[in-house]
């Protein structure tokens, strides 16, 4: 059974989008839900948030005012993302000049009721003047010349300050103690928390050890603060496995299981001793199966038996998500335990699309239309609500329609044992009307990142990409031009209107360069079926010895043969090469000269026929670009 479920996960990874969506539509249509009640609840939520928008986070307004649909929004994102990789001040200065000096920042002044946004806009206007190559007269040429002398360093400090300001909105605290202290205000209002130590994938063993110590310190602090409240009522922790091992990839599976599993088990035992929740966080698609392998080992570990705090995060935008849910439910039932399952939309969409294109894979592992991800989320939610014996569902969403639909599906099933989740600094305006609202009164857990300014930027960029796009609910809810009916539209209706197919502007990876040039095909080395196919092919060639020799008409290859070794295993000799000599080179040049003379002596009509015939053969071999060149040569 487990093998069948894993096979279903693998087969769904890059399944055609329309096929996946049609299956989702059929399943959602069969789920019991009162659509009128959903609309009423979602409408009341949006109306409440818009009434309270003057008190909303300044970041909400900032993301709307400088959305990714504007030139200035793109410039800010490019600046923030590029700052991750720039080690020196001089390059930072040049980047600031390039990205900020050409923006129409003045057009955004007064565009938002938020003092936070207007203050930022004034700063960006001033920055634009400081870095402009020529004075535009606003500050006067004399003042501009003075400021230009030290402008970029001042601006660099200003950008650093702005990032710290954003960090206060998105990060709960620089260390776990500060974060716990700040969380008490939210706890008094009825919120719960799941803390995460900020940081990207470990690159070295020292990185991994440092992150492990940070998680261990955090578990001790969270456990003491929990004071015996238990897994559901008390705070918990979320852990990124790529931070705990410098080689967290399928190619290093044996090493990961040998080295990371004991480290992960030690942290889980510590969380169990404090009786707090421990969620394995979601990462890129090519790491999913490895994370499931580790969870499978831990779920069956007798030392962790009886503990209900083991959790896993599922990203609904992956085509595999419904099948992952089935696998997790079966895992929990097999080991007679209850898993916490946090369902999220997904935060790595841009990188998943780009990676599939660069690697030339057959299709994308994620949906290319947002309504398709919303649809998959509701289907996954339905499966979780139907398996209350095996899972404790945690629904992480900032979308009012999604939230209302989940609440209505739970009510129809009589399910009360679940919670909502949101991001710190982003979801509170919506969930303030859920945690204490009369229509909902449901618990909500805040995902609360912890870390310094240096660790903030990667997380911040993902959050801005995810929620700064003009299709994002967080972006649209503060946009009065978007009606409530548009905000709360059922994804099922959107799919029926647009069809189940992928976004027309996002070509599949093989068709990335258009019909005349097929993208080079790659191998999905995180997929077990692809790896098995490669291994079978290699096994069939294991006994073959390849030989490379100069091919010159009229000469036979001779000379000493040099062995060719497998660069990954020098004891493996895969063949031999005979290098050419001076006599062979001279003969090849003579042959070429004779062939050229013969070609030019051939009648033009015969030459054209030869070229056109070659073009036909190449087109049949799926080489259209070379075929086109030969065809044009044949015409002339």
Question: How many β-strand stretches?
Answer: 11
Q: Shape from CA axes?
A: globular
Helix coverage percent: 40-55%
Number of helices: 26
Structural class by helix and strand composition: alpha/beta
Provide mean pLDDT, rounded: 82
CA-CA gap between termini: 65 Å
Q: What percent of residues are in strands?
A: 5-15%
Output the strand order for the largest sheet.
1-2-3-4-5-6-7-8
What is the CA-atom radius of gyration, in angstroms?
30 Å
- Low-confidence parts: 115-150
Biggest pleated-sheet summary = 8 strands, parallel, barrel
Structural description of this entry:
This protein is of the alpha/beta class and 636 residues long. It is built from 26 helices and 11 strands. The strands form 2 sheets. An 8-stranded parallel β-barrel has the order 1-2-3-4-5-6-7-8, surrounded by 7 helices. A 3-stranded mixed beta sheet has the order 9-11-10, with no helix packed on it. Helix 11 links the parallel strand 1 (192-197) and strand 2 (236-239). The longest helix has 22 residues, at 205-226. The termini are far apart.
């Amino acid at each position: 059974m487990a093998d069948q479920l894993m096979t279903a996960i693998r087969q769904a990874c890059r399944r055609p989008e329309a096929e996946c969506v049609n299956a989702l539509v059929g399943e959602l249509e069969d789920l019991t839900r009162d659509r009128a009640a959903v609309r009423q609840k979602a409408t009341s939520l949006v109306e409440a948030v818009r009434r309270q928008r003057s008190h909303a986070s300044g970041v909400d307004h900032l993301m709307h005012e400088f959305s990714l649909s504007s030139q200035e929004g793109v410039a800010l994102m490019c600046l923030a993302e590029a700052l991750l990789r720039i080690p020196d001040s001089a390059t930072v200065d040049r980047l600031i000049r390039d990205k900020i000096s050409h923006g129409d920042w003045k057009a955004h002044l007064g565009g938002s009721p938020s003092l936070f946004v207007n203050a930022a806009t004034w700063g960006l206007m001033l920055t634009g003047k400081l870095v402009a190559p020529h004075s535009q007269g606003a500050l006067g040429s004399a003042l501009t010349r003075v400021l230009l002398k030290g402008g970029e360093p001042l601006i660099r400090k200003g950008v650093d300050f702005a990032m710290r300001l954003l960090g206060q909105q998105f990060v709960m605290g620089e260390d776990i103690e500060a974060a716990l202290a700040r969380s008490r205000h939210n706890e008094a209002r009825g919120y719960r928390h799941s803390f995460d130590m900020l940081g990207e994938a470990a690159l070295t063993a020292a990185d991994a050890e440092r992150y492990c110590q940070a998680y261990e310190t955090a578990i001790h602090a969270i456990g003491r603060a929990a004071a015996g409240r238990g897994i559901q009522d008390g705070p918990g922790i979320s852990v990124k496995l790529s931070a705990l091992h410098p080689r967290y990839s399928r190619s290093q599976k044996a090493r990961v299981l040998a080295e990371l599993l004991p480290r992960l088990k030690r942290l889980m035992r510590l969380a169990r001793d404090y009786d707090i929740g421990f969620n394995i966080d979601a990462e890129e698609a090519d790491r999913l199966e490895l994370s499931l392998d580790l969870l499978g080992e831990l779920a069956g570990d007798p030392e962790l038996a009886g503990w209900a705090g083991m959790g896993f995060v599922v990203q609904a935008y992956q085509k595999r998500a419904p099948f992952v849910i089935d696998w997790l439910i079966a895992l929990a039932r097999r080991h007679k335990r209850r898993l916490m399952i946090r369902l999220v939309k997904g935060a790595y969409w841009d990188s998943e699309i780009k990676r599939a294109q660069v690697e030339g894979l057959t299709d994308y592992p994620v949906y290319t239309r947002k309504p398709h991800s919303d649809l998959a989320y509701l289907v996954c939610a339905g499966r979780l609500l139907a398996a209350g014996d095996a899972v404790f569902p945690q629904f992480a969403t900032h979308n009012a329609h999604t939230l209302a639909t989940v609440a209505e599906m739970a009510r129809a099933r009589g399910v009360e044992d679940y919670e909502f989740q949101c991001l710190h600094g982003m979801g509170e305006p919506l969930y303030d009307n859920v945690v204490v609202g009369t229509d909902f009164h449901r618990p909500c857990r805040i995902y609360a990142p912890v870390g310094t300014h240096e660790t903030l930027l990667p997380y911040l960029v993902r959050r801005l990409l995810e929620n700064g796009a003009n299709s994002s609910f967080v972006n649209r809810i503060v946009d009065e031009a978007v009606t409530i009916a548009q905000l709360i539209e059922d994804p099922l209706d959107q799919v029926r209107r647009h069809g189940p197919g992928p976004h027309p502007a996002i070509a599949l990876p093989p068709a990335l360069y258009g019909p005349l040039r097929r993208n080079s095909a790659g191998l999905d080395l995180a997929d077990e079926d692809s790896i098995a196919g490669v291994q079978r092919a290699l096994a069939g060639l294991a006994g073959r010895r390849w030989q490379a020799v100069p091919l010159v008409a009229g000469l036979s290859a001779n000379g000493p043969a040099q062995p060719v070794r497998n660069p990954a295993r020098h004891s493996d000799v895969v063949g031999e090469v005979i290098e050419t000599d001076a006599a062979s080179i001279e003969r090849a040049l003579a042959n070429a000269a004779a062939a050229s003379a013969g070609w030019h002596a051939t009648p033009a009509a015969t030459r054209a026929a030869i070229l056109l015939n070659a073009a036909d053969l190449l087109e049949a071999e799926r080489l259209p670009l070379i075929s086109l060149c030969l065809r044009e040569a044949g015409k002339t």
